[in-house]
Amino acid sequence: MNEFRRLPDLAVRNLGGSVVHANDEAFAVRENLITPGPAVFDPGSFGPKGKVYDGWETRRRREAGHDEAVVRLGAPGIVHGVVVDTSWFTGNYPPEAAVDGVALDGNPSVDDLTGAAWEPLLPRTAITGDTENAFAVQSTRRVTHVRLRIFPDGGVARLRVHGEALPDPALLDALGTVDLVALENGGVVTGCSNLFYSSPNNLLLPGPARSMGEGWETARRRDDGNDWVELALAAEGTIAVAELDTSWFLHNAPGWATLRGRTGAGEWFDLLPRVPLRPDTRHRFVLADPRPTTAVRLDIHPDGGMARLRLHGPLTEQGRAHLERRWTAAR
Predict the structure, then answer these.
(1) CA distance 73 to 12
(2) Contact of 72 with 104, CB cutoff 8 Å
Protein backbone atom coordinates (compact mmCIF):
# COMPACT_ATOMS: atom_id res chain seq x y z
CA MET A 1 0.00 0.00 0.00
CA ASN A 2 1.29 3.45 -0.90
CA GLU A 3 2.11 5.26 2.33
CA PHE A 4 0.26 8.40 1.23
CA ARG A 5 -3.00 6.44 1.09
CA ARG A 6 -3.09 6.43 4.89
CA LEU A 7 -3.70 10.18 4.70
CA PRO A 8 -7.29 11.40 4.30
CA ASP A 9 -8.89 11.91 0.89
CA LEU A 10 -9.27 15.68 0.73
CA ALA A 11 -11.69 15.47 -2.21
CA VAL A 12 -14.24 12.95 -0.94
CA ARG A 13 -17.85 14.03 -0.84
CA ASN A 14 -18.41 13.45 2.88
CA LEU A 15 -15.55 15.86 3.65
CA GLY A 16 -17.29 18.51 1.56
CA GLY A 17 -15.69 17.91 -1.84
CA SER A 18 -17.59 18.84 -5.00
CA VAL A 19 -17.07 18.30 -8.73
CA VAL A 20 -17.70 21.83 -9.95
CA HIS A 21 -17.05 21.36 -13.67
CA ALA A 22 -16.66 18.75 -16.38
CA ASN A 23 -16.53 19.43 -20.10
CA ASP A 24 -18.45 16.22 -20.84
CA GLU A 25 -20.41 13.61 -18.88
CA ALA A 26 -22.37 11.98 -21.68
CA PHE A 27 -22.42 8.45 -20.26
CA ALA A 28 -21.86 8.79 -16.49
CA VAL A 29 -22.04 11.84 -14.23
CA ARG A 30 -19.02 13.65 -12.81
CA GLU A 31 -20.26 13.55 -9.20
CA ASN A 32 -19.43 9.83 -9.01
CA LEU A 33 -15.71 10.69 -8.98
CA ILE A 34 -15.77 11.69 -5.31
CA THR A 35 -18.35 9.24 -3.94
CA PRO A 36 -17.13 7.53 -0.73
CA GLY A 37 -16.36 3.84 -1.01
CA PRO A 38 -15.38 1.70 -3.98
CA ALA A 39 -17.25 1.74 -7.28
CA VAL A 40 -19.87 -0.94 -7.80
CA PHE A 41 -20.86 -2.71 -11.02
CA ASP A 42 -23.99 -4.43 -12.24
CA PRO A 43 -23.31 -6.18 -15.56
CA GLY A 44 -27.01 -6.21 -16.43
CA SER A 45 -27.67 -2.52 -15.73
CA PHE A 46 -28.40 -0.47 -18.86
CA GLY A 47 -30.12 2.90 -19.21
CA PRO A 48 -31.20 5.25 -21.99
CA LYS A 49 -27.55 6.24 -22.59
CA GLY A 50 -26.18 2.70 -22.54
CA LYS A 51 -24.29 0.77 -19.86
CA VAL A 52 -24.65 2.31 -16.40
CA TYR A 53 -21.27 2.91 -14.72
CA ASP A 54 -20.50 4.07 -11.20
CA GLY A 55 -17.99 6.66 -12.32
CA TRP A 56 -17.47 9.54 -14.74
CA GLU A 57 -17.53 8.64 -18.42
CA THR A 58 -17.29 10.87 -21.47
CA ARG A 59 -18.31 10.22 -25.08
CA ARG A 60 -15.92 8.90 -27.72
CA ARG A 61 -14.01 11.86 -29.08
CA ARG A 62 -14.03 12.34 -32.86
CA GLU A 63 -11.67 15.31 -32.76
CA ALA A 64 -8.35 16.22 -31.17
CA GLY A 65 -8.31 17.22 -27.50
CA HIS A 66 -8.98 15.79 -24.08
CA ASP A 67 -11.66 15.72 -21.39
CA GLU A 68 -11.43 17.17 -17.91
CA ALA A 69 -13.19 17.54 -14.56
CA VAL A 70 -12.49 20.04 -11.78
CA VAL A 71 -12.92 19.13 -8.10
CA ARG A 72 -13.14 21.62 -5.23
CA LEU A 73 -11.45 19.97 -2.27
CA GLY A 74 -13.53 19.55 0.86
CA ALA A 75 -10.44 20.52 2.84
CA PRO A 76 -7.78 22.56 1.01
CA GLY A 77 -4.28 21.37 1.73
CA ILE A 78 -1.01 19.87 0.51
CA VAL A 79 -1.41 16.85 -1.78
CA HIS A 80 0.87 13.86 -1.22
CA GLY A 81 -0.68 11.41 -3.66
CA VAL A 82 -3.54 10.78 -6.07
CA VAL A 83 -5.42 7.69 -7.16
CA VAL A 84 -7.01 7.62 -10.62
CA ASP A 85 -9.30 4.62 -10.14
CA THR A 86 -10.59 3.00 -13.34
CA SER A 87 -12.39 0.11 -11.61
CA TRP A 88 -14.82 -1.70 -13.96
CA PHE A 89 -13.72 0.37 -16.96
CA THR A 90 -12.05 -2.23 -19.17
CA GLY A 91 -12.59 -1.30 -22.83
CA ASN A 92 -13.46 2.32 -22.22
CA TYR A 93 -10.81 3.73 -19.87
CA PRO A 94 -8.47 6.60 -20.84
CA PRO A 95 -4.93 5.42 -21.63
CA GLU A 96 -3.40 8.54 -20.04
CA ALA A 97 -4.28 11.01 -17.29
CA ALA A 98 -2.90 14.10 -15.58
CA VAL A 99 -3.81 15.92 -12.37
CA ASP A 100 -3.20 19.63 -11.72
CA GLY A 101 -3.77 21.87 -8.71
CA VAL A 102 -4.49 25.51 -7.98
CA ALA A 103 -5.19 27.66 -4.91
CA LEU A 104 -7.91 30.28 -5.29
CA ASP A 105 -9.50 32.27 -2.49
CA GLY A 106 -13.24 32.46 -1.92
CA ASN A 107 -15.67 30.63 -4.17
CA PRO A 108 -14.34 30.95 -7.72
CA SER A 109 -16.62 30.53 -10.73
CA VAL A 110 -16.04 28.01 -13.50
CA ASP A 111 -14.66 30.84 -15.64
CA ASP A 112 -12.22 31.75 -12.85
CA LEU A 113 -11.07 28.13 -12.69
CA THR A 114 -10.79 27.74 -16.43
CA GLY A 115 -8.52 30.75 -16.66
CA ALA A 116 -6.45 29.93 -13.56
CA ALA A 117 -2.72 29.20 -13.57
CA TRP A 118 -2.80 25.46 -12.87
CA GLU A 119 0.34 23.69 -11.68
CA PRO A 120 1.01 19.99 -12.35
CA LEU A 121 0.65 17.53 -9.49
CA LEU A 122 0.80 14.47 -11.76
CA PRO A 123 2.12 15.00 -15.30
CA ARG A 124 0.50 13.24 -18.23
CA THR A 125 1.01 9.58 -17.34
CA ALA A 126 -0.06 6.20 -18.72
CA ILE A 127 -2.76 4.40 -16.71
CA THR A 128 -4.45 1.02 -17.03
CA GLY A 129 -8.06 -0.09 -16.95
CA ASP A 130 -9.92 -1.66 -14.02
CA THR A 131 -7.10 -0.52 -11.72
CA GLU A 132 -6.50 1.80 -8.79
CA ASN A 133 -3.71 3.76 -10.47
CA ALA A 134 -1.85 5.31 -7.49
CA PHE A 135 0.83 7.99 -7.82
CA ALA A 136 2.85 9.82 -5.16
CA VAL A 137 2.93 13.60 -5.55
CA GLN A 138 5.93 15.79 -4.71
CA SER A 139 4.46 19.16 -3.83
CA THR A 140 4.69 21.65 -0.98
CA ARG A 141 2.00 24.02 -2.27
CA ARG A 142 -1.48 24.33 -0.79
CA VAL A 143 -4.30 23.76 -3.29
CA THR A 144 -8.03 24.36 -3.12
CA HIS A 145 -9.00 22.68 -6.41
CA VAL A 146 -7.66 19.84 -8.55
CA ARG A 147 -8.22 19.20 -12.24
CA LEU A 148 -8.29 15.69 -13.69
CA ARG A 149 -7.47 15.55 -17.40
CA ILE A 150 -7.95 12.32 -19.36
CA PHE A 151 -6.47 11.67 -22.80
CA PRO A 152 -8.37 11.51 -25.01
CA ASP A 153 -11.65 10.33 -23.41
CA GLY A 154 -13.20 7.47 -21.44
CA GLY A 155 -14.22 6.57 -17.92
CA VAL A 156 -12.77 7.00 -14.42
CA ALA A 157 -14.56 5.52 -11.40
CA ARG A 158 -13.01 7.56 -8.58
CA LEU A 159 -10.45 10.30 -8.04
CA ARG A 160 -8.78 10.20 -4.63
CA VAL A 161 -6.64 13.14 -3.50
CA HIS A 162 -4.70 12.18 -0.37
CA GLY A 163 -2.91 14.79 1.69
CA GLU A 164 -2.77 17.05 4.74
CA ALA A 165 -5.40 19.71 5.22
CA LEU A 166 -4.05 23.21 5.81
CA PRO A 167 -6.69 25.71 6.99
CA ASP A 168 -6.47 29.48 6.81
CA PRO A 169 -5.19 30.66 10.24
CA ALA A 170 -7.43 33.72 9.99
CA LEU A 171 -10.48 31.44 9.82
CA LEU A 172 -9.49 29.58 12.98
CA ASP A 173 -8.79 32.93 14.68
CA ALA A 174 -12.32 34.10 13.87
CA LEU A 175 -13.86 30.86 15.12
CA GLY A 176 -11.91 30.91 18.40
CA THR A 177 -12.65 27.52 19.93
CA VAL A 178 -12.41 24.87 17.22
CA ASP A 179 -12.22 21.11 16.82
CA LEU A 180 -8.44 20.78 17.04
CA VAL A 181 -8.41 17.29 15.52
CA ALA A 182 -10.90 17.75 12.66
CA LEU A 183 -9.57 16.71 9.24
CA GLU A 184 -10.67 20.02 7.73
CA ASN A 185 -8.63 21.89 10.37
CA GLY A 186 -5.51 19.80 9.75
CA GLY A 187 -5.86 16.90 12.21
CA VAL A 188 -4.00 13.75 11.09
CA VAL A 189 -4.11 10.09 12.15
CA THR A 190 -0.51 9.09 12.91
CA GLY A 191 -1.01 5.54 14.19
CA CYS A 192 -3.68 2.91 14.72
CA SER A 193 -3.79 -0.56 16.23
CA ASN A 194 -6.46 -1.97 13.92
CA LEU A 195 -8.48 -0.81 10.90
CA PHE A 196 -10.05 -4.12 9.97
CA TYR A 197 -13.51 -2.78 9.13
CA SER A 198 -12.94 0.90 8.43
CA SER A 199 -10.44 3.75 8.54
CA PRO A 200 -9.76 5.81 11.68
CA ASN A 201 -9.82 8.88 9.40
CA ASN A 202 -13.62 8.56 9.62
CA LEU A 203 -13.41 9.68 13.25
CA LEU A 204 -12.35 13.14 12.10
CA LEU A 205 -14.87 13.76 9.29
CA PRO A 206 -17.26 16.71 9.53
CA GLY A 207 -20.87 16.27 10.57
CA PRO A 208 -22.53 13.34 12.32
CA ALA A 209 -22.09 9.81 11.02
CA ARG A 210 -25.08 8.62 9.00
CA SER A 211 -24.48 4.91 9.56
CA MET A 212 -22.14 2.52 11.35
CA GLY A 213 -20.12 2.31 8.14
CA GLU A 214 -19.06 5.95 8.51
CA GLY A 215 -17.13 5.36 11.73
CA TRP A 216 -14.00 3.46 12.81
CA GLU A 217 -14.45 -0.18 13.80
CA THR A 218 -11.85 -2.76 14.81
CA ALA A 219 -11.88 -6.55 14.67
CA ARG A 220 -12.93 -8.51 17.76
CA ARG A 221 -9.97 -8.98 20.07
CA ARG A 222 -9.18 -12.45 21.38
CA ASP A 223 -6.39 -11.39 23.73
CA ASP A 224 -5.92 -9.16 26.79
CA GLY A 225 -4.97 -6.03 24.86
CA ASN A 226 -6.98 -3.07 23.61
CA ASP A 227 -7.24 -0.97 20.47
CA TRP A 228 -6.06 2.60 20.05
CA VAL A 229 -5.53 5.46 17.63
CA GLU A 230 -2.95 8.27 17.79
CA LEU A 231 -3.55 11.67 16.21
CA ALA A 232 -1.68 14.92 15.63
CA LEU A 233 -3.68 18.08 16.27
CA ALA A 234 -3.90 20.83 13.66
CA ALA A 235 -1.38 22.71 15.84
CA GLU A 236 -0.70 23.07 19.55
CA GLY A 237 -3.91 23.79 21.40
CA THR A 238 -5.63 23.49 24.75
CA ILE A 239 -8.40 20.88 24.72
CA ALA A 240 -11.36 21.96 26.85
CA VAL A 241 -14.04 19.45 25.79
CA ALA A 242 -13.66 15.93 24.40
CA GLU A 243 -16.54 14.28 22.53
CA LEU A 244 -16.48 10.50 22.11
CA ASP A 245 -19.35 9.54 19.84
CA THR A 246 -20.55 5.93 19.52
CA SER A 247 -23.61 6.76 17.39
CA TRP A 248 -24.88 3.77 15.35
CA PHE A 249 -22.71 1.32 17.28
CA LEU A 250 -25.36 -0.61 19.20
CA HIS A 251 -23.81 -3.95 20.16
CA ASN A 252 -20.20 -3.26 19.24
CA ALA A 253 -19.33 -0.01 21.00
CA PRO A 254 -16.23 -0.06 23.25
CA GLY A 255 -16.90 -0.64 26.92
CA TRP A 256 -14.48 2.05 28.14
CA ALA A 257 -12.06 4.65 26.83
CA THR A 258 -9.15 6.82 27.94
CA LEU A 259 -7.61 9.89 26.34
CA ARG A 260 -4.01 10.99 26.74
CA GLY A 261 -2.05 13.89 25.32
CA ARG A 262 1.48 15.11 24.89
CA THR A 263 3.36 18.16 23.68
CA GLY A 264 6.04 17.58 21.06
CA ALA A 265 8.10 14.52 21.95
CA GLY A 266 7.29 14.80 25.67
CA GLU A 267 5.74 12.20 27.94
CA TRP A 268 2.10 11.25 27.65
CA PHE A 269 -0.22 12.73 30.27
CA ASP A 270 -3.84 12.00 31.15
CA LEU A 271 -6.55 14.13 29.55
CA LEU A 272 -9.51 11.88 30.31
CA PRO A 273 -9.28 8.99 32.79
CA ARG A 274 -10.87 5.64 31.99
CA VAL A 275 -14.59 6.26 31.52
CA PRO A 276 -17.44 3.88 30.60
CA LEU A 277 -19.02 4.33 27.19
CA ARG A 278 -22.62 3.67 26.21
CA PRO A 279 -23.81 2.39 22.85
CA ASP A 280 -25.20 4.84 20.27
CA THR A 281 -24.33 7.90 22.40
CA ARG A 282 -22.51 11.22 22.03
CA HIS A 283 -20.42 11.45 25.21
CA ARG A 284 -19.16 14.93 26.09
CA PHE A 285 -16.54 15.45 28.78
CA VAL A 286 -15.24 18.76 30.15
CA LEU A 287 -11.55 18.16 30.86
CA ALA A 288 -10.49 18.94 34.38
CA ASP A 289 -6.91 20.01 33.60
CA PRO A 290 -6.52 21.43 30.06
CA ARG A 291 -2.87 21.60 29.01
CA PRO A 292 -1.09 22.62 25.80
CA THR A 293 -1.23 19.56 23.56
CA THR A 294 0.04 18.65 20.08
CA ALA A 295 -0.94 14.95 19.93
CA VAL A 296 -3.54 12.68 21.49
CA ARG A 297 -4.00 8.96 21.96
CA LEU A 298 -7.45 7.45 22.28
CA ASP A 299 -7.53 3.97 23.83
CA ILE A 300 -10.73 1.95 23.60
CA HIS A 301 -11.25 -1.10 25.78
CA PRO A 302 -11.17 -3.72 24.60
CA ASP A 303 -12.27 -3.14 20.98
CA GLY A 304 -15.27 -2.00 18.96
CA GLY A 305 -16.39 1.01 16.99
CA MET A 306 -16.73 4.77 17.31
CA ALA A 307 -18.39 7.25 14.99
CA ARG A 308 -16.54 10.51 15.73
CA LEU A 309 -13.89 12.05 17.98
CA ARG A 310 -14.07 15.80 18.65
CA LEU A 311 -11.50 17.73 20.68
CA HIS A 312 -12.68 21.31 21.17
CA GLY A 313 -10.45 24.15 22.30
CA PRO A 314 -8.37 27.17 21.21
CA LEU A 315 -4.94 27.21 19.62
CA THR A 316 -2.10 28.35 21.87
CA GLU A 317 0.09 31.26 20.78
CA GLN A 318 2.79 28.77 19.79
CA GLY A 319 0.27 26.69 17.83
CA ARG A 320 -1.05 29.76 16.01
CA ALA A 321 2.49 30.81 15.08
CA HIS A 322 3.32 27.31 13.80
CA LEU A 323 0.18 27.20 11.68
CA GLU A 324 0.96 30.66 10.27
CA ARG A 325 4.44 29.50 9.23
CA ARG A 326 3.04 26.45 7.46
CA TRP A 327 0.40 28.56 5.73
CA THR A 328 2.95 31.09 4.51
CA ALA A 329 5.37 28.42 3.25
CA ALA A 330 2.64 26.67 1.25
CA ARG A 331 1.36 29.80 -0.54
Answers:
(1) 8
(2) no
> What is d(CA 325, CA 328) in angstroms, rounded to the nearest whole number?
5
- Local structure of 72: helix, strand or coil: strand
Ramachandran area for residue 304 (φ above 0: left; ψ -120 to 50: alpha; else beta): left
Domains in the chain with CATH codes: 3-165 (2.60.120.260), 169-318 (2.60.120.260)
Burial per residue of 129-144, b for 16 or more beta-carbon CB atoms within 10 angstroms, e otherwise:
bebbbbbebebeebbb
Q: HSE on the CB side for 235, CA within 13 Å?
A: 24
pLDDT score, position 1: 60
Among 113, 123, 235, 260, CA closest to 185:
235
For the chain, which ranges sit under pLDDT 50?
A: none
Q: 112 phi and psi, to 5 degrees? A: -60, -45
SS3 assignment, position 241: strand
Q: In this structure, how many other beta carbons lie within 10 angstroms of the beta carbon of residue 48? A: 5
Cα gap 286→306, rounded to integer Å? 19
Mean pLDDT of the chain: 95
